[in-house]
Structure formats: C-alpha cells, structure tokens
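User: Batch of two.

Assistant: Item 1 of 2:
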Amino acid sequence: MDHPDTTHLELVVHKQLQQCSSIFLALADPVRQDIIMILTKHEALNVAQIVERTPMSRSAISHHLKILKQAGLLTSSKVGTEIYYSLDIEDSVTLLKAFLETTEQILVLKTPGDE
C-alpha cells in the first residue's frame, strides 16, 4: 500500500526545523547547558554571578550568554550598571513542541499499520 501524501506536513516540518535551528545550536554546547542549569536555580544573575559558578572566563561566559539570548532562551534586564540574565524559554518550548508534533504526524502517516 502506498504511503499517504505527506508533502504539506514535510514543508511545515522543514520550516519548523529552520525556526528551531538556533535553539538546537545554542543547546548543543555543554557550557551553555551549564548556564541554563544555573539559571534554572536563580531568577536572574549577572555575568559576574554566573562566572562565579563556572570555571569559564568572563569573556567566554558573555559570549555564551549572547548566543543563548540570540536563540531566544534568555532575556536580559539592566539594573543600574549591571545586566541580569534570566531564562525565557516558553516561546522556544512552544516551537520545539510544534516541531516534534509535526514530525510525529509524518511518522505515523508513513508507518505501515496493522493491515
């Protein structure tokens, strides 16, 4: 039996994958994973406070924070002269869930059933 036409879903999942690419890249690095885990335990931290909790230099942490922020995983707010970073993952989680749901729909349609 032929597989159902999944062309439309494949176009959707391709677009979703493009939207999630920066998230995947940001999450792929162990240092950025550590930063996310640190921020899960704190409402907001500045660069110096994050550096205290890692073996990395201030410039390295700043670089990783920039990537996480560009990926939409962090937000920042300025308090006096300090910039505080906090997790802001709701939109990213929504994008990732949509990608996974569409991928699952394609797999279900392409998997032969009990015929």
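Item 2 of 2:
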Amino acid sequence: MSIPHSKRICQIIKLKPSAVDEYKTIHAAVWPGVLAALKRAHIVDYSINYYPPLQLLIATMKYTGSDYEGDMKKVAEDPETQKWWAVTDGMQESFVEGATGSGKDIPWWTEVEEVFRFEGVSQ
C-alpha cells in the first residue's frame, strides 16, 4: 500500500566482507534513539537487504514529510545517530568519490534511480 505524498528512496553501499556478521548482529537490535530519529524525520517502511555476491547493502525507505533535506540534516545532527554511524560506517565502503562518512556534505550511501514501480493497480 502506498503512503500518500511519500518519496521512495533506494540506496546502496558495499559491506566489508569481514563485517558481515557484526553488521547483521547490530541491525538485529538497532538502538532505540536511532529509530526515534528516523521516526521524527518522517522515515517509514525502512529496510536494508544484503546481496553477498556483490557485498552489496540495499536500503529502501519511504519519506512522508515535506522537507527531505531538512529532515535528513536533523538526523545527521542527532547525537545517538552519530554514534551509530561511527560504528556502522567502518563496516562499509562508499561508492561515492570523496565520501568520508554518513551525515557529511558528500553522501555516504549512493542513491539509485527508480526505473519501475508497480503498486498492484492497473491503469
């Protein structure tokens, strides 16, 4: 079911092979403060999938607010989220040239273009 006025986002990043188990473990119990920051930023239906042959993490989410850039800035300023990123960024390798970590001017995760969507309703 589609949420009215939502923006769908898909992002990718590489997971270091040595960090697979730790990454899965930490995401099995995401810190409540991190989840609260996402909720305040109007992020819903957020998931991260892993594709081992390419060591690829694929994140999908919906944004239901009206100021995506502003809300993402608030997430980046959240102290609990900054601590979370200090742990998780070290497990990842960005595809973005010049990226140094989450929440910076240069994006850490690569946003990918949506080329098809079917929401179960024919035209």
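The mean pLDDT is 94.
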